[in-house]
Amino acid sequence: MYSEDNNQHSTEIYKGSVKRLLFLITLIALFCIFLLWRLEGSRVENLRSSLVNLFIPAIELGLKPFHHMQDTLEILLKATQNQDTSETVLQLRTDLKQWQNYAYNLEEENAKLKKLVNFSESSSYQTISASLLADTSSPFRHSYLINSGSERGVQNGYPATDGLGLVGRITNTARKTARLILLTDASSRVPIKILPSGKKGLVVGNNTQNPKIELLGNISGINPGDRVLTTGEGGIFPPDLPVGTVSEGPDGTIELILAAENSSLKMISVIKYEPVTLNEVEVNILQSPSDLAEEN
Which one is predicted more confidently, 41 or 208? Predict the structure, then answer.
């Protein structure tokens, strides 16, 4: 027991002596360094330079991890900035694309409005502009709901155009809305003439985008691409309205390529054109071309 205490006491004395010796050596070294840096002379200067050159590699070696850490931080900061820049550029690109599409839509709509305005200015009839509210078509019906009705002077039977060609006629007129029956509807019948031959017939809707053309006579003198205009017979449609052009169907029949752009229809002009008499209109519309030929 006594031996262990004595050994512990001796160890503490030894540690204390070592600490005091190291402290003294540190003070002496610092004092020497102080003197070395304060003294002047060529030899002292050479000694200082030698010491600096001796310790510089060790200092540089010790600072390398900090330099690598600094470079890594700079790379991460640049990567973050580049990512932010890339995201900003992508967002700007997306915004510009949206604005470009919006500008294209406006340009297309503006062109269609110009067509309607030009038609209204060149037409000898008064017109009423209207927008399409909803597509009310079905497999057996081709029609649209428009945002103009009797409040603006729209009446049943009025024809409608998109500025390029005849679109259809108005039915079921309410105070603020009306229904537009397209030429492609199965109930549609339009008296037409084909130029330059001058032959007459009917454009008959068949619920497809290419209505049939039923002629009163034979098809001699009629070629694909011939112009199709309204005759004005029957009193529903004004004469000489563009309807489309002649096309040959897959089964050899004559079809119509519409002048109106039904696939992108948004605005129409309703023509204020009153039928002559309702009875006369119904007779002419419901009669087939063969019946009309027999009467003539």
Answer: 208
Q: Please state the length of the chain.
A: 296
Residue 210 has pLDDT above 60, yes or no: yes
Burial class (CB within 10 angstroms; exposed 0-12, middle 13-18, buried 19+) of 130: buried
Greater model confidence, 199 or 121: 199
Residue 136 sits in a domain whose CATH number is 2.40.10.340
The parent domain of residue 180 ranges over 127-295
Question: What is residue 7's predicted lDDT score, i.e. its pLDDT?
Answer: 64
Taking alpha carbons only, the member of 145, 141, 169, 134 closest to residue 155 is 169
Do 29 and 154 lie in one domain? The reply is no
